[in-house]
Amino acid sequence: MRAKERRPSLAEVAGEAGVSISTVSKVVNGAPDVAPDTRVRVESVLRDKQYLSPKQRSRSDLATVVVVLASSSMSSPLTVEILRGTMRAAHEAGLELVLLDLPDGVPAAGWIERTKRSGPTAVIALKSRLRTQERAKLAKNGVPLVEVDTYQLPDSDSYSVGATNFAGGMAATQHLLSLGHRRIGFLGGVSDTQASIARKHGHLAALASAGIEPGGDIIEEGDFTYESGLQAAETLLGREGRVTAIFAASDAQAAGVLEAARRARVPVPDELSVIGFDDQLVARMTAPQLTTIRQPSDAMGSYAVEVAHKLLLGSAPPAFHTDLATELVVRGSTAPVSATENIA
Length: 344
What we know:
- Helices cover 37% and strands 18% of the residues.
- By secondary structure, the protein is an alpha/beta fold.
- The chain folds into three domains: 1-57, 434 Repressor (Amino-terminal Domain), CATH 1.10.260; 59-163 and 297-324, Response regulator (Rossmann fold), CATH 3.40.50; 165-295, Response regulator (Rossmann fold).
- A six-stranded parallel beta sheet has the order 2-1-3-4-5-11, with helices on both faces.
- Helix 1 crosses helix 2 and helix 8 crosses helix 9 (251-263).
- The radius of gyration is 23 Å and the shape is elongated.
């Protein structure tokens, strides 16, 4: 939905004033940490462009971003970090942010009525399984939609933000291969989610590039939880021809792997290397600390607001889907394989 009158964006004001968007936001919101001459220059551009801050607009004309997510996902540290990014970006852009938590099993499109606001509104769906009819109703009502870390593959004509899960999966396995590991177990997350599928395919691609045929007995599907990682790792460690390394599709699963190794008296990383995915707080709380693939979760939330804001202003973001880069973080849970332990 477009605002009633086309207002200059913070980016346009920043470009003309020769400053960053965050500096313009600080001036608009009255923050004190702006140099006097910079403040005067920005305020001059704001006046020339007849820009009104959120405080100066009437309540009915205030642009709103509604973040919708399932109540069950609030226990995920990843969700919290994404929300932190959305909150910061909304504040900097002068947007009102509303959080709408949905119990599991909400009827199709039933929640959309709750997103209605008096002014221009966009929706950010966080870790969603939106139905086709829900997307269609939002589009019919002129409500821009941006999905973050969506469970299913994004539509070709809808906006979404994610992470480079395939590249991250490759990087995790390539790290283990570089340490000499050849029998590497993989623990998948929720099997029908695009993130888990992409991480698994990245793992398989890395093995293929190294000329290694993956064994079906060392791939376990589950979900992204600690309990799933514990159970799957106990299965892997109990088999003949034990794996020398395990790549888990989440840090929570990897923490479960560490516990399974402790119970089986398999020292990490001396006899078993473990790598996770996400780089959540748990990765720095385990002993040893987890080697993992860092997701740009905070930046994903921030970028989603940026896209939503552009849509509210009637602008076209540069792409329908954007994947932000993941990064390998090496800590103490991975080490070179022992020659006597590696099994071809």
